[in-house]
Amino acid sequence: MRARxxxxxxxxxxxxxxxxxxxxxxxxxxxxxxxxxxxxxxxDSRPPGARWRLLRRLMRLGRARRLTVLLAGTPAxxxxxxxxxxxxxxxxxxxxxxxQALGLILTLPxxxxxxxxxxxxxxxxxxxxxxxxxxxxxxxxxxLGRAAWLRLARLAGGQPIALxxxxxxxxxxxxxxxxxxxxxxxxxxxxxxxxxxxxxxxxNAVPT
Length: 208
Known about the structure:
The protein is 41% helix and 16% strand. By secondary structure, it is an alpha/beta fold. It has an 8-stranded parallel barrel, surrounded by 5 helices. 38% of the residues are buried.
């Protein structure tokens, strides 16, 4: 199946990272994203068939809302399943050229200067630089802070995406404080509002 590949200049600036611990279903979270946003599908613990079906449902939703859907995995599987691109983990960096050859959007995680230089050499279209702030996903892990994050973002090249404790307000403050047009990605920021809404509804429910 042929994937829809926006050019690198159209890499989204707003992203949802899938997380199996989220209290809200992934499709419901995806429906809350602004048009033109991106999704990184992880859900690695699911069997391949179930993961493929989830990706296809996201792709159908994405067509209506102009969402870019990346698969965390290998370029070959991302291409075969019809994803727009691949979130290539550092351990699979040797497959970066394969992703480029297949016409996939190539993104990489960046946590330090070594990984940032690797992302630049690989020609990644976007680098998810993290963690900018403390995050529930990695409790106790030291946060980069703004200055260190900006150094890595400049070193990595491509579109820098801030990840780790990010919210829309924090993304605005980051961009006001720097000359980099940074994107942002989150897990909890998208999950919190629907979770709080369900809690309010439960509290306000009248016992029968």
